[in-house]
């Protein structure tokens, strides 16, 4: 990206009414997230033979010990089909154990096997290495700002979703047309 484009991106949102992908936050975040995910996927596949969805299942189970597939969908933002495919492959590989809930026979209960815990111990340093390489581009203040901004965006998108589901009309900034903007000192009619 050119210096001019990067300076424009760092500024305020574009209010021209035209879509400029280099200034469109969802696009920029998706591109960066995809590049990071691709780098991690290559390392996970090469060193452990697992995919990103499989890693997310393993990582979540390592944090919570046991849970259902539905819990994993909720906490990892993966869809049910993706989680089910990952769980099926991980069970077949002997990396997770699946049982039926004693409280609700419709739910499965998943947990890491000893082999799954071993894979987790191998992958954590790989993931932390990629994260460290990325964060090395930022000073401590920038890292703090980044994580606060991500948190704020997460809270805001949840509000946007809730408002949409409740039928609340979004407040959309309207671009100002240069032809209709009165010049300073020009009386309005």
Treating each run of at least 4 consecutive H or I residues as one helix, how many helices?
7
Strand order of the largest sheet: 1-3-2
Task: List unreliable stretches of 5+ residues.
Answer: 1-7
Mean pLDDT: 86
Structural notes for this entry:
With 189 residues, this protein is mostly helical. It is 61% helix and 6% strand. The protein contains 7 helices and 3 strands; from the N terminus they run H-H-H-E-H-H-E-E-H-H. The protein has helices at 3-10, 25-48, 52-64, 69-76, 80-92, 114-135, 140-166; strands at residues 66-67, 96-100, 108-112. It has a 3-stranded antiparallel beta sheet with strand order 1-3-2. The longest helix has 27 residues, at 140-166. The two termini are 44 Å apart. Mean pLDDT is 86; it is low at 1-7.
List keywords for this structure.
single chain, 189 residues, mainly alpha, 7 helices, 3 strands
